């Protein structure tokens, strides 16, 4: 297209001069130039015009609130008739937060250990399932994929209810089974009041919901590994375990990195699955995680400043992980992100 | 040829291996589907509460569903969820498609910065957004309004939608667009008659995902909606659950009503979404 354009441009004025007086020959190049300028302007502005609505929404509803939450964390915010009043208090909320025993003894350990357990189990189970799917024939792979998708699609709220029902004291399936096996006395055992069983159940719930993403992403990675690599490994006498660690893992390391980081981000900010569980909505401070703690401070105790400070802490934690994530993406040689 | 026979020999060869594979498949199916089965079978069980460890329900009844609709007002909740989800779909699809075309098709300054920003906002915890947005919405008197909730959900679903659609737009060959220009089409004409039909499957998949985001969301709906006539389905169950903490039949019936549409949508859409997801998640 471009070469033909320059050809016309070059020959245009001459042809016009000699042949037709009626045709506005000199106007031709100028309109052409104007058109070119207009096109360049369109090239420059069109992407921004296309982006503008989305960016405005994101700025107004995600970025602006983030700035606000930072501001709120430096204030004592009180709700009064006709609006809230904020009094600047500096870093008081952060000082209170970082010196509170609750944060160091309960909230942070709950958040971090829970996230580590969930990520570890999610990745391990997801990888095992991906390896399994990779070995199955078409029909069984389809059946298993649909089952995995069903687990993935289970909404966080209803999924949590089902797990609560399964572990419900007295009437729940697992309470009855454990009682029948003589492990517990179903009449007196409540798994939701203690920190460890509470988070064990939450972990099962989150892993059940989270491993499908890992399985399907890792499977996509597995399918890209050339079969010849495994044949070579087998010829060299490597067993399945060695083939996995020496061939599979190094070849699709970027995939593992990405699913690990994404799972870490998701599992650090788990809220609904904890909040909905018995005692999770604030009545049992032993099971607070950072998100629930922030929510309770703000909405149950009406201390918006302290809640915001905890929320900012969580955001900073996640931001640190996110930066690692983005650097990983770039290091993967994604030159045209 | 030889590769195929080799893998075949590997998977179909020894009976021990096949048995192991079968056991693994069975374990996987039980772990993934048992909660779903337990939910649905409890919802239909006339003696849901005293079910204990009976694997099969004691019978089939629709009593729990009737109770949920007649006394639990669940029809309203489902309708609210559908309205919010519908509004989210429409706006998110339109906005994300435009944005995705911009980042997939044009090279401009700060393009990478925009993409990184989209990645970063995806990581923001909802707990950090819910406090300032609650205050903001209260100041605008948009609490307890389906519109206010929809606006939040549009913002929440945009980053993922843009990221996924960008993958779909990239798969449309540029030559197709250029052909349209040569035929004298303007940009809007090209968009309408060439790009849109080609991206449509991806757009549908992404929209359904936005719908699921809105349908499942709990924190904002729980915080913003204080009048029970404005509850979405996810919050409606929570309410139900709090009032009758032991009425597992109705709770599972309402959970089934919330879960089953999402599952069907999700399974149908996943193949379409797969390519975009892979482009977004694996390759960045």
From TrEMBL, chain A:
Q: What is its main location?
A: membrane
> Annotated region Disordered: where?
1-34
Q: Which domain of life is it from?
A: Bacteria
Q: Could you tell me the membrane topology recorded for this protein?
A: Multi-pass membrane protein
The protein's location, in the record's own words, is: Cell membrane
Kindly state which keywords UniProt assigns to this record, in alphabetical order: Cell membrane, Membrane, Transmembrane, Transmembrane helix, Transport
What stretches pass through the bilayer? 48-67, 112-133, 140-166, 198-223, 244-266, 304-326
**Gene3D superfamilies assigned to the protein according to its UniProt record, in alphabetical order:** MetI-like
The keyword Membrane is assigned to this record:
yes
- Protein family per UniProt: Belongs to the binding-protein-dependent transport system permease family.
What is the name of this protein? Answer: Sugar ABC transporter permease
Source organism per entry reads Streptomyces luteolus
TrEMBL record, chain B:
**Domain ABC transmembrane type-1 stretches:** 78-269
Describe its membrane topology.
Answer: Multi-pass membrane protein
Write out the annotated subcellular location: Cell membrane
The UniProt entry, under InterPro entries, shows:
BP-dep_ABC_trans_perm, MetI-like, MetI-like_sf
> Which UniProt keywords are given for this protein, alphabetically ordered?
Cell membrane, Membrane, Transmembrane, Transmembrane helix, Transport
Q: Which domain of life is it from?
A: Bacteria
Pfam families cross-referenced by the UniProt entry: BPD_transp_1
Q: Which CDD domains match?
A: TM_PBP2
Primary location class? membrane
Transmembrane domains' residue ranges: 21-40, 77-102, 114-135, 147-169, 190-215, 247-269
* SUPFAM superfamilies xref list: MetI-like
Q: Which PANTHER family match?
A: INNER MEMBRANE ABC TRANSPORTER PERMEASE PROTEIN YCJP (PTHR32243:SF18), MALTOSE TRANSPORT SYSTEM PERMEASE-RELATED (PTHR32243)
Family affiliation: Belongs to the binding-protein-dependent transport system permease family.
**Protein name as catalogued:** Carbohydrate ABC transporter permease
């Amino acid at each position: 297209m471009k070469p033909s354009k320059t050809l016309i441009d070059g020959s245009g004025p001459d042809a016009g001069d000699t042949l037709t007086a009626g045709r506005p020959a000199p106007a031709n190049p100028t309109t052409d130039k104007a058109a070119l300028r207009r096109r360049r302007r369109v090239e420059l502005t069109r992407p921004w015009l296309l982006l503008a609505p989305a960016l405005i929404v994101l700025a107004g509803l995600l970025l602006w609130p983030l700035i606000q939450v930072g501001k709120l964390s430096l204030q004592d915010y009180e709700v009064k008739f006709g609006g809230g009043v904020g009094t600047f208090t500096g870093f008081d909320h952060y000082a209170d937060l970082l010196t509170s025993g609750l944060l160091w003894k309960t909230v942070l350990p709950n958040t971090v250990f829970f996230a580590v357990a969930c990520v570890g189990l999610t990745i391990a189970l997801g990888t095992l399932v991906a390896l399994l799917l990779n070995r199955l024939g078409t029909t069984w792979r389809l059946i298993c994929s649909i089952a995995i998708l069903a687990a993935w699609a289970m909404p966080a709220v209803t999924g949590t209810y089902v797990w609560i029902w399964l572990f419900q004291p007295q009437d729940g399936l697992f309470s009855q089974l454990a009682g029948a096996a003589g492990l517990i006395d179903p009449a007196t055992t409540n798994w939701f009041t203690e920190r460890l069983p509470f988070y064990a159940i939450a972990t099962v719930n989150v892993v059940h919901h989270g491993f499908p993403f890992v399985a399907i992403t890792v499977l996509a990675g597995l399918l890209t590994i050339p079969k010849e690599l495994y044949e070579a490994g087998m010829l060299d006498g490597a067993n399945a375990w060695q083939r996995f660690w020496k061939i599979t893992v190094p070849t699709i390391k970027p995939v593992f990195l990405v699913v690990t980081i994404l799972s870490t981000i998701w599992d650090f900010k788990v809220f609904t699955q904890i909040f909905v569980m018995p005692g999770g909505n604030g009545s049992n401070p032993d099971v607070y995680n950072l998100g629930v703690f922030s929510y309770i401070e703000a909405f149950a105790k009406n201390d918006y400043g302290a809640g915001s400070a905890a929320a900012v802490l969580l955001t900073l934690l996640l931001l640190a992980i996110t930066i690692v994530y983005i650097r990983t993406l770039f290091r993967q040689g994604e030159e045209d992100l | 040829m030889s590769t195929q026979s080799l893998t075949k020999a590997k998977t179909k060869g020894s009976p021990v291996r096949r048995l192991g594979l079968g056991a693994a498949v069975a374990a996987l199916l039980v772990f993934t589907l048992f909660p779903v089965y337990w939910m649905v079978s409890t919802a239909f069980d006339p003696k849901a509460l005293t079910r204990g460890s009976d694997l099969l329900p004691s019978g089939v009844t629709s009593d729990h569903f009737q109770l949920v609709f007649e006394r639990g007002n669940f029809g309203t909740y489902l309708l609210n969820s559908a309205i919010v989800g519908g509004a989210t779909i429409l706006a998110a699809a339109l906005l994300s498609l435009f944005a995705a075309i911009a980042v997939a098709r044009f090279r401009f300054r700060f393009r990478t910065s925009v993409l990184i920003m989209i990645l970063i906002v995806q990581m923001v915890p909802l707990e950090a957004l819910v406090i300032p947005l609650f205050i903001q919405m209260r100041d605008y008197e948009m609490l307890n309004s389906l519109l206010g909730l929809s606006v939040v959900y549009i913002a929440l679903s945009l980053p993922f939608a843009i990221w996924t659609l960008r993958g779909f737009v990239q798969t449309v060959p540029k030559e197709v667009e250029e052909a349209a220009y040569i035929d004298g089409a303007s940009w809007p004409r090209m968009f309408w008659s060439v790009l849109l039909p080609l991206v449509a499957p991806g757009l549908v998949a992404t929209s359904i995902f936005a719908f699921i985001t809105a349908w499942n969301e709990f924190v904002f709906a729980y915080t913003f909606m204080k009048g029970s006539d404005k509850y979405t389905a996810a919050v409606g169950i929570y309410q139900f659950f709090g009032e009758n903490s032991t009425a597992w039949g109705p709770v599972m019936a309402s959970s089934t009503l919330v879960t089953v549409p999402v599952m069907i949508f999700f399974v149908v859409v996943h193949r379409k979404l797969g390519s975009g997801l892979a482009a977004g998640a694996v390759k960045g």
